[in-house]
User: Fold these one by one.
Assistant:
Number 1:
Amino acid sequence: MVPDLSEWRAVRVAHLKAEVRNLYWHIRNSQRGRQDAYRRRYYRKISKLKTELLALGESRRAVLDLVACCRAVRCRVVGCQHCGHRVNWKAWV
Ligand SMILES: [Zn+2]
């Protein structure tokens, strides 16, 4: 049985996005200045996943929004597709 390639791509993209989010936990929860090598290790892991996302046809904008969403404690991406925060924070602040 040959698997549907478009479905395979969607599954892989979803997995990579979840993995980027998981890896960003380490960056959010480490100290700048004291744990720079530790943080670089995770930035390197994430950059490989970002490269694969771009190779799978995700737009550059989508990848940047995903990273911006993962980086912040409170997501400020307007209309974010990743975390479910669809509130426009910039209009409030
Ligand atoms: Zn978000």
Number 2:
Amino acid sequence: MRRVKVGVLGATGTVGQRFVELLDGHPWFEVTALAGSERTQGRLYGEAVQWHLGADVPAYARGMRLQPGKPGLDCEVVFSALPSEAAGSLEPLFAAAGYKVFSNASSYRMALDVPLMVPYLNPEHLAAIPVQQARRGWKGFILTNPNCVSIPLAMALAPLHSRFGVRRALVTTMQAISGAGYPGVPSYDILGDVVPYIGGEEQKVETEPLKLLGSWEGEAFRYADIALSAQCHRVPVREGHLLAVSMELGQALPEEDVLSAWQEWRPDMLGMRLPSAPDVPLIYRSEADRPRPGRDAMTASGMGAVLGRLRPCPLLGWKFNVLGHNTVLGAAGCSLLNAELYFASVEQVAETVPDVQPSRSRIPAL
Ligand SMILES: NC(=O)c1ccc[n+]([C@@H]2O[C@H](COP(=O)([O-])OP(=O)(O)OC[C@H]3O[C@@H](n4cnc5c(N)ncnc54)[C@H](OP(=O)(O)O)[C@@H]3O)[C@@H](O)[C@H]2O)c1
């Protein structure tokens, strides 16, 4: 069985730690390189990292030495959890050197030849990779995952958009402090308070879902025709972004039709069953006071989006809440799913792994 060697850039950070946790014991991927900034390079991971997750630093990672985050790492894949500025300069170097880069940073998400992907939503956008490689002369590639709000928002809208059309939506966010990385927002600024500003966030939330819900047309992406408006807030919650959404659909419907579109939705993912994907990634809770970050963020091991409170909206027709874990579904988990999808469908690793179903379909362009 082929095991794919992977590295993590920004491995000591908030998202990097999630990668280190999620990759522990992964059936296809073996972590062979961890990279940090100049601050931590050369130190043992277990000593350099300020671990924020529940359990201890996974045993496999403790004794690994942090390396400089530049090509030369002993791996085929790099998961990038770099700040966007560093990602902007370093990720193309890795892609040019032949590495497969799965990035959380915003630097290349909206680039014309870079897939922005959530396997639940747009797995066919993998077909942009050969075009990117040909245009840029890269042996490797960059494949990005969206912002941590864009993912649960797009997951909530996707089943409705494909059945009924979504004309416009207004989203108000309540975003956890871990979304700002570590140390992130000073405690003095957030304890007992709400900050009604997250730099650059509203623009990302208003554009990324349109690429996700759009199509790859062979040479370029066509964006979904939905008008989005976002208002983003940082709240004193540790993990999990809660969204309040009002939306206008393309037709008048009874409530049961909206609910059943959500409840019946099973993403195709090119016919793959991926090791880190839950069977049901979109969950509707019927209690009046759910979803809540403190109780529901880890639903489906953090890989699910949790919906609730569907009700009429006097302005746009319908309103509801949706919640997503910002560092799992919203970051490292989504990146890991993208890598699983790539290796299952393009490199066909799945057929060598006994507990994963072989694919039903392949992507012709690849
Ligand atoms: N936090 C979230 O919920 C979330 C969600 C979606 C996307 N993202 C994106 O994911 C990326 C990482 O975010 P984060 O929250 O994990 O940030 P973070 O906690 O601040 O961690 C940043 C990491 O990058 C490393 N780093 C910093 N500057 C570097 C440089 N110049 N060269 C190489 N490495 C450098 C740091 O290394 P040292 O510790 O060694 O200094 C650290 O490991 C960002 O692009 C962010 O926008 C974050």
Number 3:
Amino acid sequence: MGLHNFGTSGGVEAVEMFGDLPIKNWQLGSWKEQAKKIAGQTMQPKYLHAHYACNACPIRCAKIYKIPGGDHIGHGPEYESIAMLGANCLNDDPEYLVQANHACDVYGMDVMSTGHSIAFAIEAFERGILTEKDTGGLKLEWGGPTVVKLIPLIARREGIGGLLAHGVRKAAEIIGKGAKELAVEVKGLEIAGHDPRGHVSMSLNYATAARGGCHLEGLTYFLDRGVTAPDFGYMTPLDPHVSDDKPPVVFTMQNYLSVFNPLGLCKFLFPGRVGPKIVASWQKAVCGWDSDMDEVMAAGERIFNLKRLFNVRQGISRKDDVLPPRMVVGKPDGKAKGVVADLAGMLPKYYELRGWNDSGIPTRERLEKLGIASYAP
Ligand code: SF4
């Protein structure tokens, strides 16, 4: 019912409670009262215009909001907008948040990378790495006003917006002066709004996902929160702060999501216990393929390896399967206080499960087993 009523914005307070919410460019671990102010449950009575859904979906997780300051309506902020344009920028003002989310929609900008870039810039300004000389006289401060001011500048690549439009990796390279320490990205993609210290399995996910800091290639944090996956035998919540047992979990979930995603299946089917057995039966119904769970998972492993092979051709290897500096420092408070994932311990076990060598390159032996040896590097 939470998704039905509030969409993903209804989960903000729970995410904060888990120590999973990015706060102040990923520096803080607790923001309880403020999170409540920008949760869907609080914003919706004031701004909701209508609910809507993908074709025939009974969940209808999408919400249309009335946008403050005019008669127009637009998409209401979902969890990632709230996390990145809200908490990560210390913006707890619903009015600014709804406006910022709408502006990103209108300009066609990703709310996650945009929020990251703004939080990065504010922190850089606070630390004197960026100055008013760089910003054209703008004072960058934590909170909503700076967020709504920077979005159009980024969209038009005007002034400081031209720098931030590159994303945090490139912006940090251009700025120098230690700005890399503030850039929270993997392989150039700003990480999603799920803190790999709140759910350590996400460290391995982010480090090895083909796109970089993408949460949708693994979704392992679902399993820490009590979502069960009977086909894989995950029936009780996993410990979100323990690293040792996570390599097989990440291996399995990445393989499954590698099939789940290209089939265009909504992620919220997963909490509904749609596992590979059901996917196999759907494939049979739609395509006539007589597959089973093992074949679905083998297809997923093939797809994951093909993506890795593409990346290997582009020069990606173990040196790139890393976390940004901020993620190897524990948070000062909240449920995940002091937690840091043991990525160095997880990576060799993960490579072994994948049949990749010590450099993170798929071995010919594994590629032959998967029937894709012709793509071997
Ligand atoms: S299919 Fe998924 S994304 Fe679409 S309305 Fe339903 S729950 Fe939301």
